[in-house]
Design a protein that fits this description.
Layout (H helix, E strand, L loop, with lengths): L5 H14 L11 H8 L2 E2 L5 H10 L3 H10 L2 E5 L5 E5 L3 H24 L3 H15 L6 H8 L7 H7 L5 H10 L3 E5 L9 E5 L12 H16 L4 H8 L3 H8 L5 E2 L7 E2 L1 H9 L8 E4 L4 H4 L15 E3 L5 E3 L9 E5 L2 E9 L4 E6 L6 H17 L14 H10 L3
Antiparallel strand pairs: 1-3, 2-3, 4-5, 6-7, 8-11, 9-10, 11-12, 12-13
């Protein structure tokens, strides 16, 4: 593969920035539309979806929560069986490409290790649905009503991370589109969920074969983050090499230049060759799992030569940013270049940032805007559900000693 020069890397960064609607030019204000155009937003009990939608549309936290409550956005198991925030038009596709994956994996473990039969899980699932006819309930409420119907797996279950068969039934019902998960607090950065019947079931009349679903996802994927490699899509989709090759055949993907593994669809290739990045500085503070990097699971093409940084990792390790698949802190981008990291300090109520790009007047303005959004609307900016203030103290101290804030 030919090594990418700096001018092409700069063009790629600006193109991805534009594709991801972070430049603010012509970005739609409807939240479901922005997810259709820039990709599903990873949810892990943190603030990534809020930051992603705010950076692209200026949406408030309340606007996102309202869309979630009314049903135009939904957290669903989808790509690789992982949970993402999807627009309504993609519910059936999301469930088709990955909704069953996590459920099947758990059921397989339960069958092999604990002797659980699919038939008994389905019987429990039907009983859960009858209980939900009276309204949403959380797992604690369901267990109380189900009583002895819920099977406990004791110490053997603890060893494999499956303590009862209720989570198996709930996962299976979600994958089938029969129930949906609702944050008890109404917020995406939540740790507690209730479940409600989903009527109408998004899969009714929208069944895709596995092959068709993967092909549809591939077409969306290259519109979200192309140019991308087949390996990039293989990671995102969780599909094998042969399935990826079959799914992308109809796209007629072409390399952006000779010997490049980065591919674009034929209809986008002409736009790519004509594309020119503008010079107006634009800085955005986004989440650690923002689609600028997350869709491809890699950061090396977003770092300019000479600006690679050594960041602290787990157990005292130091890792260069270019070698990471994702950041452990939130990201700062300038027109597609990764130029820094940030964290919110809930003790001092301020945003701490390490900015390693060329000093720009827009940086302080962007930091102040990010700080106001987190402080006034989110309260905190945890990356995932267990990322509490105390667990973040070491990172905060490290940033305060080296960064701006």
């Amino acid at each position: 593969m030919r090594k990418m020069d700096e001018s092409q890397k700069s063009k790629l960064q600006a193109w991805w920035w534009s594709r991801q609607k972070l430049g603010g030019n012509g970005a739609p204000t409807r939240l479901d539309t922005i997810l259709e155009q820039t990709g599903w937003s990873r949810t892990v009990g943190g603030v990534n979806p809020y930051l992603a939608l705010h950076a692209r549309t200026g949406a408030s936290r309340a606007a996102v929560d309202d869309a979630l409550a009314e049903g135009s956005l939904q957290e669903l198991p989808s790509a690789r069986g992982c949970t993402y925030l999807l627009p309504q038009s993609h519910y059936a596709l999301g469930l088709s490409v990955g909704g069953n994956l996590a459920s099947k994996q758990e059921l397989s473990v339960a069958e092999r290790k604990l002797g659980v039969l699919v038939e008994e899980v389905d019987k429990l699932a039907d009983t859960v649905c009858k209980l939900l006819e009276s309204g949403p309930q959380d797992p604690r409420q369901l267990r109380a009503e189900l009583g002895g119907i819920v099977r406990s797996f004791g110490e053997e279950g603890k060893k494999v991370g499956i303590t009862t068969d209720l989570p198996l039934a709930l996962g299976r019902l979600q994958a089938q589109g029969r129930i949906r998960r609702i944050p008890v607090s109404g917020r995406l950065d939540s740790e507690r969920y209730a479940y409600a019947l989903w009527d109408p079931n998004p899969l009714t009349g929208n069944q895709f074969s596995p092959e068709d679903a993967l092909a549809k996802l591939a077409r969306l994927y290259w519109s979200w983050i192309g140019p991308a490699s087949l390996k990039n899509f293989q990671w995102f989709s969780g599909a094998g090499v042969r399935k990826v090759e079959a799914a992308t055949q109809g796209l007629k993907l072409k390399p952006i230049e000779a010997e490049s593994e980065l591919l674009l669809s034929e209809e986008d290739l002409e736009s790519w060759h004509a594309f020119q990045a503008h010079d107006v500085p634009e800085t955005k503070f986004v989440g650690s799992l923002d689609n600028m990097s997350h869709l491809r699971a890699g950061l090396k093409d977003l770092i300019d030569s000479g600006l690679d940084q050594a960041l602290p990792g787990e157990k005292g390790q130091v890792m260069n940013v270019s070698g990471l698949s994702e950041l452990s802190s939130h990201a700062i981008y300038e027109r597609g270049r990764l130029v820094g990291i940030w964290e919110f300090d809930p003790f001092e109520q301020e945003t701490l940032a390490l900015y390693w790009g060329v000093d720009r007047p827009g940086f302080e303005k962007a930091r102040a805007a990010s700080q106001a959004f987190v402080k006034d609307e989110l309260g905190d900016a945890r990356s995932f559900s267990l990322d509490g203030p105390e667990s973040r103290r070491t990172k905060l101290d490290w940033l305060r000693a080296r960064g701006q804030g």
